[in-house]
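Data deposition worksheet. Section B asks for the primary sequence of the deposited chain exactly as it was used as input, without tags or linkers unless they were present during the calculation. Section C holds the resulting structure in token form. Section D is free text for depositor observations; keep each observation to a single sentence. Incomplete worksheets are returned to the depositor.
Section A, Depositor: J.P.
Section B:
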Amino acid sequence: MFDVFTKFPTFPKSVKTGIILLVVSWCWFYYSMYYFFLDQNLSGKLLAVGPMIVFAVLRIVNWARVLCLASNVMVIVWSAIFAYAFIQSNPVKFGASVVTIILFGLSSYYLAVKESSVFYKTYNKPAEEDEEGGEGT
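Section C:
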């Protein structure tokens, strides 16, 4: 797991940007939920979800990237509902919801682009699989 941190600078720019935005997104999500929405009370389950997703994405396995994209969509939809609910009644909560939508949307974009997709699909493949189709026997 920790070798990922040493290899992080060599990752494609879209992967690095997506992971950084994912971490920033979850930090902002927790901050905004704590201060603006949940009256300074976060559940343990909610606190566990973000780090688990980030940890899985950092393992550079494709299923984790897909799971992350699905959870990002859920957070975006939920935040869009909040934004719609507070569009006129509470501009601070509306703004917090919009920032959440933007951050998770950008993270999703960078993790979904073709460069990231190819990187996640090929990162943990053994070298033998890449060389098999090269020469006929």
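Section D:
The chain has a mean pLDDT of 86.
The longest helix spans residues 13-37.
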